UniProtKB/TrEMBL annotation:
Region (Disordered): 1-25, 682-719, 795-828
UniProt family annotation: Belongs to the TRAFAC class myosin-kinesin ATPase superfamily. Kinesin family.
Example GO molecular function: ATP binding
UniProt-recorded name of the protein: Kinesin-like protein
Subcellular location: Cytoplasm, Cytoskeleton
Keyword annotations: ATP-binding, Coiled coil, Cytoplasm, Cytoskeleton, Microtubule, Motor protein, Nucleotide-binding
């Protein structure tokens, strides 16, 4: 069974590392082209070296598009219409050329509305070259003499550069020459744009500028490639036309190749090299040795580039073109003769000149068919560029880390590395001042201003650390000149540089011509000459051996010295690094300590403040305590005084009560004694009366029986409630209860066990007589489960001395009693059930 293949893991996007490297903003220049004619209504004006003024056109006003007031746009520099190509080049492209020679990358692109002069700016005219030919001029002016032999540097097809010896390079050159000779000469093609032939035939005026800061101990080589991005497909403009390549499905249409055959171009793909740089895989790279050769390639590619006639431009670019100049450099060997064969020492820098196709509105161009499709692809790719710039800016100015959609378009994908900090980026905004372009120009301005805010990490200058002596090339040249002079006999061998062979086998060959077979003189001379030469050769060999020995010894000494110095340097370097680290650590420690010190100082300050606050609080609390102590002392004294007053009052009250009780008791005693006395009197009187008269006939039954039997004689159980304070009146009218339970203080249990209730209540009347009330009631079970007493009857028993005037009946007494004391008795009865004892005794006291 076939094993199932796992899904290819998704590549995590590389994020640019946050470094502290210096950054430069993208420099944006603005070039205003001259109007088409004097009658053209213009909407743009140069206000100053850096400010461009845009005035809204009438159509914009009508359509209400863009700002409806004048707007000013600031750039690094604004070039007025009369600016020459040379001025523009010196300010915009020359620094990029200097960079590329010093091993740094650069990207220059033109941007603008269709017909605004982008191609004119990049290429120029045969009479007045644009930025691109001038870049090539300056590069070759600067490194022309320092170039390595052709084929010494050899592209490795994966965006890197291989090296080969001069001998191998010569062999390769010969191979190529042979191949070229085998290919039949091509038929010249019709020039398609910018008149390729015009360029070739026009007297060439090279830009004379030369970069001075070139490392002469390096050997250089220049490679060019030219591609176009058409409908988001990449095509190689320098590719040799294949004779039998089938049309690719991707190729949108066949274009006229330079050999006149209608052959479909093969689209290329983008790849990432080992250093994560994007490159067009399989794009032709041509090594050029002078500006003419480079321009030849430019013209060749330009002829193939897709251009078309539109309403707005006679020859409008229908694709984005990218001209890549790659400068390879590597150090010379110690003798300054050949390139050092060390691939790791090769530095390749790249200058990309991009002529973007112009943004265009279809309602203005009136394009249809292919042109319309091209226009929409152009606009889409420009839109991606804008989006990338916007997101880049957003990522740089805010904390957001959005993914920049470089891959959405081939243009942005190809130059992704530039925006991520692999080179300098410059942009030239081309502006057509024509008022009809206003609406699109205003969008271009906004994009340009946005681009200026994007920052690119500054690239470091490349320095080769070969350890070789500088000035090798010059020394070698001097040596060669000296050698030539010596060989010409104009200079003596002492002038030769040390370490270089300066031997000669003697004077040139004499004229030795054998005139006859017997010419022994000539032979003799020849033998002598050869012997001399042999002797000379031997001397030179010996000298050479000696010198070799000396040299070897010197070299060994030097090497030893060198090794020793190197070791010493390394140890010093280590020490230095260690010291540096120590210093760094100490610095950090000091910073930490300072910080801690500061923290402690602040803490101490806080504590001090807190301490002061607490002291204040303590003081106020002390004050409060002392005032409270004083207050409590005062209160205690007051309380004491009150207690004393109360005690005195209570003492007085007690005395008064005691007196009162004593008085009461005395009264009672007196009453009893009086009663006793009266009873004695009655008894003694009765004794006397019984003796004299017959006993009286009973006229009526005794009141007592009638009254008592009615209720008490039943079988009910009675609760006889007699408070302890009750006095035994010893009256004959006492209730007779068969079943009774006598209590001084009734409780619920007692009440539960009985059916009837009787309260015997005694009071002292105004005459000091004891009045006994018998209050009767029925005991009921309450609904709530308790017991209640319902009072049903009150009997009042009153003792008094028999009145002199009239004898009152008991019923009259009761009535009288009822009328006067009823309320009081009722209240008392109520209390009797719940807690008679206390209230009753209190009442008694009150009485
Ligand atoms: N600065 C200038 N001086 C003189 N002529 C100019 C200038 N700029 C542009 N032109 C002329 O304007 C015309 C259009 O220019 P060009 O083809 O360079 O525009 P473009 O922006 O490349 O257009 P497209 O995007 O359609 O390719 C050309 O004839 C060119 O010669």
């Amino acid at each position: 069974m076939k094993p199932t293949r796992g899904k290819t893991p998704k590549k995590t996007p590389r994020r640019p590392q946050q470094t502290n490297k210096a950054k430069d903003p993208v420099e944006v220049y603005c070039r205003l082209r001259p109007p088409n004619d004097d009658q053209t209504d213009v909407c743009a004006e140069v206000l100053s070296d850096a400010v461009l003024l845009l005035r809204p056109s009438e159509t914009a006003r009508v359509n209400r598009i863009g700002e409806l007031k004048e707007t000013q746009h600031t750039f690094k520099f604004v070039f007025p219409p009369e600016t020459s190509q040379k001025t523009l080049f010196d300010m915009v492209a020359l620094p990029l050329v200097q960079d590329v020679i010093q091993g740094k990358n650069g990207l220059l692109f033109t941007y603008g509305v269709t017909g605004s002069g982008k191609t004119h700016t990049v290429q120029g005219t045969p009479a007045d070259h644009g930025l691109l030919p001038r870049c090539l001029d300056v590069i070759f002016n600067s490194i022309g003499e320092l170039q390595a032999k052709r084929c010494v540097f050899k592209p490795d097809k994966v965006n890197g550069m291989d090296l080969q010896t001069e001998a191998d390079a010569m062999l390769e050159r010969q191979r190529k020459l042979q191949q070229d000779l085998l290919v039949p000469p091509k038929t010249p093609t019709t020039p398609r744009r910018n008149g390729g032939d015009d360029w070739q035939n026009f007297p060439y005026v090279a830009d004379p500028t030369k970069v001075e800061t070139v490392d002469e101990d390096n050997a250089y080589a220049v490679f060019v490639s030219f591609i176009e991005i058409y409908n988001n497909y990449i095509y190689d403009l320098l590719e040799e036309s294949p004779t039998s390549v089938p049309s690719t499905p991707r190729a949108p249409f066949k274009f006229q190749s330079d050999d006149g055959n209608g052959i479909a171009p093969q689209s290329k793909i983008l790849r990432e090299d080992m250093n994560h740089n994007m490159y067009v895989y399989g794009a032709t790279e041509v090594e050029v040795k002078n500006p003419e050769e480079a321009c030849e390639q430019l013209i060749k590619g330009q002829k193939r580039r897709r251009v078309a006639h539109t309403q707005l431009n006679m020859a409008s670019s229908r694709s984005h073109s990218v001209f890549l100049i790659r400068v390879a450099q590597a150090p010379l060997d110690p003798e300054g003769e050949e390139v050092l064969q060390d691939k790791s020492q090769v530095c390749v820098s790249q200058l990309a000149l991009v002529d973007l196709a112009g943004s265009e509105r279809t309602n203005r161009t009136k394009n249809t068919g292919d042109r319309l499709r091209e226009a929409s692809n152009i606009n889409a790719s420009l839109m991606v560029l804008r989006t990338c710039i916007e997101i880049l800016r957003e990522n740089q100015t805010t904390i957001s880390n959005r993914i920049v959609p470089y891959r959405d378009s081939k243009v942005t994908h190809l130059f992704k590395n530039y925006f991520e900090g692999e080179g300098k980026v410059r942009m030239v905004i081309c502006v057509n001042p024509s008022a009809s372009d206003y609406e699109e120009t205003i969008h271009v301005m906004r994009f340009a201003e946005l681009t200026q805010e994007v920052e690119i990490t500054r690239q470091k200058e490349v320095r080769f650390d070969t350890g070789l002596t500088p000035g090798r090339r010059k020394a070698n040249q001097m040596y060669r000149e000296a050698l030539e002079n010596f060989e010409r006999g104009e200079q003596d061998a002492n002038f030769l540089l040390p370490g270089r062979p300066g031997y000669s086998l003697g004077p040139p060959w004499p004229c030795l011509e054998l005139t006859a077979a017997s010419d022994s003189v000539t032979l003799q001379n020849l033998i002598q000459f050869l012997v001399d030469r042999e002797a000379c050769r031997r001397t030179l060999c010996e000298d050479l051996c000696r010198k070799h020995g000396v040299m070897r010894t010197q070299l060994l000494d030097l090497e030893k010295n060198n090794i020793f110095l190197r070791q010493e340097m390394e140890s010093l370097q280590e020490q230095l690094t260690g010291k540096g680290k120590d210093l760094e650590r100490a610095k950090k420690k000091i910073e930490n300590l300072e910080y801690k010190n500061e923290v402690l100082r602040r803490t101490a300050q806080l504590y001090d403040e807190e301490k002061k606050e607490m002291e204040n609080e303590l003081k106020s609390k002390d004050h409060q305590i002392s005032s409270r102590t004083a207050e409590s002392r005062r209160l205690r004294q007051t309380m004491k005084a009150i207690e004393q007053t109360k005690d005195a009052k209570w003492e007085k009250e007690c005395d008064r009560r005691m007196k009162q009780q004593r008085l009461e008791l005395q009264n009672k005693m007196w009453v009893k004694e009086e009663k006793l006395r009266q009873l004695k009197e009655i008894v003694s009187k009765d004794g006397k009366r019984r003796a004299k008269s017959p006993p009286p006939k009973p006229t009526a039954p005794p009141v007592r029986l009638n009254h008592r039997r009615s209720r008490s004689a039943s079988g009910d159980r009675w609760l006889d409630h007699k408070p302890v304070c009750n006095l035994d009146t010893e009256t004959v009218l006492q209730p007779q209860l068969k079943k009774k339970m006598t209590v001084s203080v009734p409780d619920v249990k007692n009440i539960k066990k009985t059916d009837k209730y009787l309260l015997t209540h005694q009071e002292e009347d105004s005459q000091g007589e004891i009045e006994t009330k018998l209050i009767k009631g029925d005991v009921f079970k309450s609904r709530a489960g308790g017991h209640s007493v319902q009072f049903t009857d009150i009997e009042v028993l009153k003792q008094e001395a028999p009145p002199e005037s009239r004898k009152r009946s008991a019923s009259e007494d009761i009535e009288e009693e009822h009328s006067g004391d009823w309320t009081d008795v009722e209240t008392r009865c109520a209390i009797a059930v719940e807690g008679h004892d206390r209230r009753a005794s209190a009442k008694r006291h009150k009485v």
